[in-house]
Amino acid sequence: MTTDNSAPTSGSIMVVGGGISGLTTALEAAEVGYEVFIVEKEPSLGGRVSQLKQYFPKLCPPTCGLEINYKRIKDNPKITVITMAEVDKVDGKPGDYTVKLKISPRYVNENCTACGECAKVCESEISNEYNLGMDRCKAAYLPHNMAFPQRYVMAPSMAQDDRDRCKEACKFDAIDFDMEEKSLDLKVGAIVWATGWRPYDAARIDNLGFGRYQNIITNMMLERLASPNGPTRGKIIRPSDDKAPATIGFVQCAGSRDENHLPYCSYICCMASLKHATYLRAQYPEAKIYIYYIDIRTPGRKYENFYKKLKEDKNIFFVKGKVAEVGEEEGTGNITLVAEDTMSGDKVRQTVDLLVLATGMQPNSAVERPNADLTFNSDGFIVNDFKKGGMFAAGCANKPADVVTSNQNATGMALKAIQTLVRR
């Protein structure tokens, strides 16, 4: 197959990002016969979904969707997974791209069996970014219990004494501190950017107190607290004193629908907070939960029914009003907040044990813009140019979306990538 000017066309597809959208795109293309490269900057696939306790629509744990996808990847010789890799540059045109990758050293080779002996002897610790910095982990670490590939990582900051101990403890000659950063060039015919999203930096929202007061957390932090493999093994407790919270407040649209931060609706935040209310209710049947909102957005009948059921709970209070300011009660660590109830016009003052900010979804491409011929909207999402073709954005790289919508979109982008190869 050749392009119009007789340049050779690659039959390969590169998927940038190994989250749920990237996995779906890669599997859809590979299982109809196309060679696919999954390029993931983290040490493991799974993306944001792997950090969740449960996800909609069925409130499944992440193992439910990820394990079967990992098995499909293992069983498919058409898929090559490249972790700890970032796209440095993309040159070329649809059907004929040259991609330069930058691959960071893991300091662990494929001999690793994830036995964990290195972690046992390692004394150095680093911030656990998988748990959003809420705890620390060994500098010799498995990214998380669902990591794929199931292979340890040695942090570059590891002290020399620990390096020696880890190498000595490894029975499989899997640790290699001589590894260096390397480059790799790939020839591909189409690229799907499934670079996902990150929680908006709540510290930038001055009036909501994140970072100043210990008992203010974000929605993703609550998700990790509730997760069995999280920093508290699934127990939702206050960061300041490990106390079980009796009153919990949620601030919706924390940074979203705000011209000073994210001007758009992040789509997932309302349903995430409603889900979090069920987490809290399961652990604390008598806890009082206050949800401060501009609008509750529940797309679809199933989600609307979920919302209606929570409204029947006598200890869940929905307050239509935007939180204007927060503070900390002296001596207790409790959080005080002030909001205007737009239904009554009254100013509401409330004290809660724990405050959760429903921070918005920011595309990774807004912060780390790919070095490629792509079009971005003003919010940093990648705009698909189907007329030009060749490169496409899937899932939350293209727009705010939940898991179901992201997967549907990823299937479509796999087809668009295939069409690029077939038509040229």
UniProtKB/TrEMBL annotation:
Keywords: 4Fe-4S, FAD, Flavoprotein, Iron, Iron-sulfur, Metal-binding, Oxidoreductase. Residues 103-132 form the 4Fe-4S ferredoxin-type domain. Pfam families: NAD_binding_8 (PF13450). GO terms for molecular function: 4 iron, 4 sulfur cluster binding; metal ion binding; oxidoreductase activity. Its cofactor is FAD. InterPro entries: 4Fe4S_Fe-S-bd, 4Fe4S_Fe_S_CS, FAD/NAD-bd_sf, HdrA-like. PANTHER family: COB--COM HETERODISULFIDE REDUCTASE IRON-SULFUR SUBUNIT A, FERREDOXIN:COB-COM HETERODISULFIDE REDUCTASE SUBUNIT A. Belongs to the HdrA family. This is QmoA. It comes from Desulforapulum autotrophicum (strain ATCC 43914 / DSM 3382 / VKM B-1955 / HRM2) (Desulfobacterium autotrophicum). The gene is qmoA.
